[in-house]
Every structure is written in C-alpha cells, then in structure tokens.
Amino acid sequence: QVQLVESGGGLVQAGGSLRLSCAASGSIFSISTMGWYRQAPGKQRELVARISSGGVTIYAESVKGRFTISRDNAKNTMYLLMNGLKPEDTAIYYCNNPGALGPWGQGTQVTVSS
C-alpha cells in the first residue's frame, strides 16, 4: 500500500513562497498521476494541481500562474512550488493519486498572513 508523507509547509507573509514535498513509498509512483489537494477550515478538500506520469500538468484556476507542480520519479517525490501566496491559500495540503485515491497522509499546514 502506498504511503504518502507531505512536508515543507509553514507560516509565510502574503506574496511569499513555499515549496512542498510529497514522498511516496511503492513502485507504482512513477506510473501514477499524482496531485496536490488542500483543505481550508470549514471547506471541502479540493484538488489544486495534478501531474501525469509523463509530466503533463493541470491547475485549478485559483492557483494557475502562481503554483508549479513537478515530480522526480527516481526519488518517488512530487513537489509544489507556491509563489505569490495569498491568505486564501491557507490550508492543510495533501498529496494523493486523483485516479485512485489511497490513504491520506497527515498533510502539511500552510498559513499565509496578510
């Protein structure tokens, strides 16, 4: 069973940047589409970016142009570079496979102050 561990969150001022990492166990990572999700207090979890095994990316409109998703299949790791952060980006960020959701990790908290 794939295990996912997110890291890299923190407290940052509006306009700042953070890079999140998602470390995955299991040999299927390299052939799986992966995505970054976030859940803000009182809101549903939403998919903000996804990347195919071949590197094709799709972004939610709310983060397009500010966030960049990438992956290193050799390291079984996926990244989310977040620039131009806004207070509304405050949430717990998770990674998972949008096509075949597995167990959720603990997530990493991102807090953007105004």
Instruction: Characterize the overall form.
Output: globular
Task: Provide mean pLDDT, rounded.
Answer: 95
Q: N-to-C SSE series?
A: EEEEEEEEEE
Strand order of the largest sheet: 2-10-9-4-5-6
Radius of gyration: 13 Å
The count of strands amounts to 10
Please state roughly what percent of the residues sit in beta strands, choosing from under 5%, 5-15%, 15-25%, 25-35%, 35-45% or over 45%: over 45%
Q: Please identify the structural class as seen in this structure.
A: mainly beta
* Chain oligomer state: single chain
Q: Uncertain regions: pLDDT < 50 for 5+ in a row?
A: none
Question: Separation of termini?
Answer: 40 Å
**Number of continuous helical runs:** 0
Question: Major sheet: size, sense and barrel closure?
Answer: 6 strands, mixed
Helix content: under 10%
Q: Could you outline the blueprint of secondary structure elements for this entry?
A:
Elements: E1 4-7, E2 10-13, E3 18-24, E4 34-39, E5 46-51, E6 57-59, E7 67-72, E8 77-82, E9 91-96, E10 108-113
Parallel strand pairs: 2-10
Antiparallel strand pairs: 1-3, 3-8, 4-5, 4-9, 5-6, 7-8, 9-10
Give a structural overview:
There is one protein chain. The protein is an all-beta fold. 0% of the residues lie in helices and 47% in strands. The chain is built from no helices and 10 strands. It has strands spanning 4-7, 10-13, 18-24, 34-39, 46-51, 57-59, 67-72, 77-82, 91-96, 108-113. It is globular. The termini are far apart.
